[in-house]
Amino acid sequence: MNRMKVAIDGPAGAGKSTVAKIVAERLGLLYIDTGAMYRAVALKAIQAGIDLSDQESLTRLAADLDIRLNPDGRQLRVVVNNQDVTDQIRSQQVTESVSQIATIPGVRAQLVKIQRRIAQTQGVVMDGRDIGTQVLPNAEVKIFLTASLQERAERRMQELAAKGEPVNLEELKNSIAKRDARDSQREFSPLCKAEDAHVIDSTSLSVSQVAEQIVELCKAHI
Ligand code: C5P
C-alpha cells in the first residue's frame, strides 16, 4: 500500500484543493481537506450562537464534534454529528468567520489530532495552512502553492459566478487578503512555507500543469 504523505499549503484560493484531489487520484492516496474541518467548527459555532472570541466554549465544541471526511467511502462529503454539511460550510458567513476560530490553539489541537490519526494508517494528500510545518512535518513531499491576489480573486469570482453568485472583484480581493493576513499573522501555527517545501506559483499555470509538477515530485519518492 502507498503510505506516502503529501502536504500542500498556501493562501486562500491558490487552487490547493482542486490540485490536491487530482494528485490524490493519480497516486491512489486519500485526499484530506483540513480547511473543511475548521469550517465545520465555524458552522457549528455560528449555529449554536457561540461568541467567536469565546475560546473555551469553542475548544469544547471542537472536542465534542464528530467530524467525518469522506464517510462510508462517499468522496469529498463532510459530515458532522451525522449531518451532511458539505455545502453549508462554503457559505459566506462561514468563510468570513473561520479564520478567527482557526487562531484558537485548543481548536487547532483537536483538529490536528484527528488529521494525524487519519495519516497514520494510510497515504494522504492533505491540504491546509500548517500541514508541512505542524501536522505532517515528515511528509515526503511538501508544496507551498501560491498565486497573485488578483489571480486568486478572479478564479474565485468565476467559481461563484458559475454557481449563480455574482460578487464584486474588489470586495472579493479585500476579503481574501483579510483572511490571508489573519492566517499568516496568528500566533499559533501561522500560514508559512515549510523550510523544505517546494514553492509553486500557479498564477500563470493551468490546474493540470500544477498537478503534473506535484505528481512528478512525488514519483521521485515512490
Ligand atoms: O482551505 P480553506 O480556505 O477552506 O480553509 C478555511 C480556513 O481554515 C483558513 O482560512 C484558515 O483560517 C483555516 N485553516 C487553518 N489551518 C488549516 C486549514 C485551514 O487554519 N490546516
UniProtKB/TrEMBL annotation:
Cell membrane keyword on record: no
Documented EC number(s): 2.7.4.25
Enzyme class: transferase
Subcellular location: Cytoplasm
InterPro entries per UniProt: Cytidylate_kin, Cytidylate_kinase_dom, P-loop_NTPase
Keywords tagged on the record: ATP-binding, Cytoplasm, Kinase, Nucleotide-binding, Transferase
Gene Ontology MF terms: ATP binding; dCMP kinase activity
Residues that hold ATP according to the record: 10-18
GO cellular component, one term: cytosol
Gene3D superfamilies, A to Z: P-loop containing nucleotide triphosphate hydrolases
Keyword Protease: no
One Pfam family hit: Cytidylate_kin
Record domain Cytidylate kinase: where: 6-219
Catalyzed reactions per annotation: CMP + ATP = CDP + ADP; dCMP + ATP = dCDP + ADP
GO BP term, pick one: pyrimidine nucleotide metabolic process
HAMAP family: Cytidyl_kinase_type1
Homology family: Belongs to the cytidylate kinase family. Type 1 subfamily.
Name of the molecule in the record: Cytidylate kinase
Species this protein is from: Effusibacillus dendaii
